[in-house]
Description:
The protein is of the alpha/beta class. The strands form six sheets. It has a seven-stranded mixed sheet. Strands 14-13-15-16-17-18-31 form a seven-stranded mixed sheet, sandwiched between helices.
Amino acid sequence: MNSIAATPVLGTRSQTQARDMPILVRLEPRPGIAHSGKPPVRLFLGSEDAQYRAERIFLYALEQVRDPNRAYEIFVMRNMTGYTPRGWRTGFTNYRFAIPDYAGRSGKAIYNDVDQIYLADPGLMFDLDLDDHGFLAVSASDTSVMVMDCARMAVVWNLQAATTQSKERLHADAASFWGPLDPAWNSRDAEYEEGRSKLLHFTAMHTQPWQPFPENYAYRQNTLAEIWFDLERRADAAGYHVFTSSDPSDGYAPALAARAHGEAKAPLSESLLQFIQADGVRGALVVTAGSPPPAPESPAMIAIDLSASGGIWPVGKTESVIAVDLLERLPPDDVPWTIDRLFDSAQQAVAARIDCRDGEEEQQDTRATIRSPEWWHVQFRAAAARHPGIAWYIEARTSADRAAVILNDGPRQFRAKPPNVWVLLGHRAGDRAQLLSLANALGWPFEAKEMVYTGRHYLPNLLQKESTLTLDPPSAAQLLAPWPDIVLDCGKRSVPVARWIKKQSGGRTRLVHLGRPWGAFDWFDLIVTTPQYRVPPRANVQVNAVPMNRPSQSVLDDGAAQWRERFSHLPRPWIGLIAGGRAAPYVFDAEAARQLGSLASAVAQKAGGSLLVTTSPRTGAAEAEALRDTISAPAFIHVWTPDAGENPYHAILALADELIVTGESASMLAEACSTGKPVGIFDMPRRPGALTRAIDVVERLAGGHGGRASYRGTPQQQDRFARFYDRLIEQGWFMPLRDFRAYQDSLIRRGWAYRLGEERQPRTREPQRDMENTVARIRRLLLSDGRRQ
C-alpha cells in the first residue's frame, strides 16, 4: 500500500488535509498465489473526514471478498482541492465526476460512495463489458456505484466540469452515455437480499450504523446494522488498519521530517507524571518527533525521536509509553496504527500529550491533524479496547493554559480485585432473568439487591430524578456504601434508584440499563436494548437482536430428563409450539388461536411429526381452548393454569427439533432462538386503539420527510421534524411504542427465524453473539472508556 503525498491544510478541525490527487491504497495479490494476469481493479472511493470508520470497513470488507490472485488499486478521494461544495449533500458529491482526469483519461474505473460494503468481488463488476456505453449504473441519475470508461467519459466528466457544475447538470450531460447495471451492485437499505445483493449501500444518513454526523442527525436503528458491526468487530479482532507501521502512508515520513529540531518543549505535566509513576513504574519510553521534552529523574525515561530514526520504532516493551508532540504531527491515516503501536509497546500504561489548538500561525508548518479532545478520545478508546490490560491517559491541550484530561486507570484499579457489581432485581420474571444472565456472563462477583417498590413508582422518572422514595424501607436499607463500580438494572421502576446510587458514589458508579431507558439517555453509561423498543442508537446505546435472558444448559437438561419419556410415544420430528397472549396493540384472540393451531398442525403433518404444545400465563382460557380444538396433528398439549402443575416449557425448548413461537414475546423468541433450532414466528394481528393510531401517525411522520420513501422505495433523508421527535426521545420526554415486527425482522435477517406461513429459505446461521458483545462493551466501560477531568 502507498499514498500520493498530500499538502497539510490547517486552521479548522473539519478539514485536516487537502489533496490534489487521491490517496492510493494498493492491494497486491496474496503471497504464494499465482497472479491471475488480469489488470488491476481500479476503484475510486468518495469519502470525507467524518467517515473514517466507514472508510476503514469499506476497505476491510473489500479485502474479504476480493480475488486473491489479483491486484486492486483503491484511490481514496478525501478533501480534494479546487471544489466549491455548495449544495452538496456529502463532502465528496462531485469528486466522482473528476475520475476520468484522476485516472489519466484511460482505462476503466469503478466509483463507490464510502457508505457501502462489498459482499462480492468488485472485480466482477470491473470486468463487465460496457458495450457502447460510457458508464453503467442502476440509473442515469444514481451514480453512487458505477463502472466507467474513463476515456469516453472525459468528454463530459472531467476536473473542470466537476469543480464548476452541479451534480444535476453533470448527470444530464452524461445521460446518453448511460447503460444499466445489475441493481444487486447497489442494494440500498431495504433492497438488500441475502445471497443475492453484491453490495450493501447504507444510503439514509440518519440510519448509518457508524453515526458519522451526530451533530446533524438524530440517528435511528437500521435493521441491517449488524452486518456492518460484525465487519467492524472482525476488523478490530484482526487489528486491521489501512496503513501500518511497516507500510505507512506516503505523508508519514514528510510529516515527521517537517518537525523542527531544537525548539524548546514544555516539561511533562505533574498530573501526567503522577499517572505514569503509579504502581511504582520505574521505566518509561518517550516517543516524539523532534527533541524530547525535559525528563525527570524518576521514572527513568528513554526518548526516541521518530523524525531522526526515519520513523523506525524500537523493538520490545517498556512499562509505560508516553507520546509527546507526535500524534498531532501525523496525517490522519497514520494516527490509528500509531496509537495501536503505543499500546503494543507498553506493559502497564500509555500516556499522550496532544496539541489540539488551531489557528496558531507558528505551528501550521508542522501540524497535520488538528482535532478535538473528543476525537482523540474515540481513537484511544478503540485501541484500548484491543489492549484491555493497559491503563491510558490523554492530556489534550485546547489553549495555551488549559488541557482537557481524559484518563482511565481501570486495569490498575481492578488488578488486585474484580469490580463490585450490584444487580437491582424487581418483580418481573423476564427482567430478572435478563439481569441474572448478564451478571453471570460478566464473570465478576455480584450482589443481587431485591427491590420492592411502593405506589410512588408510577410517577414519571423525569419527576423522580435521583431518589429511593419509591422503595419500601427494607429495600432502601440495603443500599449502603461501599458503592459499586457498576449497577445493572432493567425496567422503569429501578431507574431513579440506580441514579441515586451513582450520585452517592460521586459519579464513579457506571449504570447499565436493559430495555427502554424510561428517561434521558445521558443518565446511563450504557443502554442495552432490542429492536422492538425502537430506541434511537446513540454512543451509549447497544441494540442487540434479542434480550439477555436465556435458560441455562442445566435447566434445559433437567427439563429434558423429566419430560423425554412422556413425549416418547409421539412421532418425530417434534415441533414445539409455545403460545403467548395479548400484548397491546397485538391481539391473541380465539380467531388468532385457531389460525395458529391450523398453521402449526400443517407444519407437523408435512414433516410427519407431532406437536409439543404449551401455553403461558398470558394465554386466555378461550384462546387456549380454541388452540387445543384446532390442532389436528398428533400432539402433547399443556394448558397453563395456576394449579396445572409442572410446566414442560424448558423441556420443549430442549427436546423439540424445531420451534413455533408467538411473536409478541421478545423473551420467548430470544430463548427459542438461543437453542439454535429453526424457529417459526406466528405474527399476531396488530389492532391499535385510537391513542395508538394517533401515536402511529406521529411516528410515521417522524420517519424522515413524512415517512415517504425515495423513488426506489428506500428511506428518505431525515427532516427537521424527525430530528426534533428523536431529540424528545433522547431527552426522556417520549418513549416509542413497541414494534414487534421490527424485532422479528431482525431475527429473520440474521437467519435465526422465519415467519410461519412463509417459505423457509436455507440460510447460513450465524451464532448469537449478543451476550458476548454486551459483556465486552461493559468491560470496556470499566477498562477502556476514559473519564474526563
